[in-house]
Specification:
Blueprint lengths: L1 E5 L2 E11 L11 E9 L8 H15 L4 E5 L5 H9 L3 E4 L3 E5 L1
Parallel strand pairs: 3-4
Antiparallel strand pairs: 1-2, 2-3, 4-6, 5-6
Length: about 100
Amino acid sequence: MFLAVEDGAPAGFAQCQLRHDYVEGTRGGPVGYLEGIYVRTGFRRRGVAAALLSACEDWAQAQGCVEFASDCELGNTDSVAFHLGAGFAEVNRVVCFVKPL
């Protein structure tokens, strides 16, 4: 779990973990996996999510991962846009994402 703080206030968080089971579109585990990310409204569009994602990716890479993945619901267009903008590639229409580390 990573917490972003700006000016002493919590701005957002990200939760990631290692997945050892099959992860859609990857070559095999362990794979770093973004389980959730949230940025408070007043802190959005300021690089907070990108910094949180970067911390998660760095952590996963330090654990020996060469891939990082995530998913979101089909109708969550904001999340799809975030993932694509962050360098993930869509690998299935259940909207799973993979990105090399």
